Amino acid sequence: MTMRIAFLASRAPVAQSAQAAMVARYGNVPKEEANVIVALGGDGFMLDTLHDTIDLSAPVYGMNRGTIGFLMNEYSESDLIARLMAAEQEIINPLSMVALDTEGRTHRALAINEVSLLRAGPQAAKLKISVDERQRMAELVCDGALVSTPAGSTAYNYSAHGPILPIGSDVLALTAIAAFRPRRWRGALLPSNATVRFDVLEPDKRPVIAAADSVSFANVVQVEIATQTKIRHKIMFDPGHGLEERLISEQFT
Predict the structure, then answer these.
(1) First vs last Cα of the chain: how many Å apart?
(2) Which candidate, 225, 149, 123, 143, places its Cα nearest to that of 184?
(3) 43 is a catalytic site residue
(4) Residues 43, 101, 199, 213: which is the catalytic one?
(5) What is the CATH architecture assignment of 5-92+232-250?
(6) If we measure between CA atoms, which residue out of 27, 24, 31, 26 comes closest to residue 6?
(7) Which of 83, 159, 202, 253 is most deeply packed, by most CB within 10 A?
(8) Average pLDDT of 193-209?
(9) pLDDT (tens digit per residue) in 137-179
(10) Is the pLDDT of residue 230 over 80?
(11) Which fold, 95-227?
């Protein structure tokens, strides 16, 4: 099979320089014609690339030209074709978010890492939590809450003291951010097919922002979150350095 590679890069000078070097060495095709997309940047750029190529069949192979690079492979200009041929593929299903704001407008977005609700004012948010249309918590007073996929569980979720979830597990993490009441409540593990709904209590007094990865909407009053199984993001990793290994390693650092 002829390897048709599309090189995409973040705006960072180091990523732009890497893209120029890679294109000079391996050539370049438009992403619509590629059978492999190589993303040069950090984790944020990888998320942007996955969102931007959602309608394309080509898998994405990331090379770290950013900071942490959890979703990326090590950068090297040599042996790229061999690495791509040997790479292992992971499938990630994103979360769908449907948010209703105080003006009655509905907003939709997808999240590969997490959907989060965050207080937008000086007072803590008050949230009601329902799972599969059954109320599970009448009032959570907190700085916010989030629902994370396994792939996103080492990101904001982990910083908020949520659990790291193994890749391939049919589980979502619902994690509170600085919970005040119930005191120190850190959340719950839910089946991946669960539908989670947050209702914002006292939204005028305690405004809340909803964010799906980097896309955010202000003044929400209700947010519904579910796994979007029909969308399958394909990410490639070097053998022995896939998401499963990274998730395990992250817990011992």
Answers:
(1) 40
(2) 143
(3) yes
(4) 43
(5) 3-Layer(aba) Sandwich (3.40)
(6) 31
(7) 83
(8) 97
(9) 999 999 999 999 988 888 899 899 999 888 778 899 999 999 9
(10) yes
(11) Tumour Suppressor Smad4 (2.60.200)
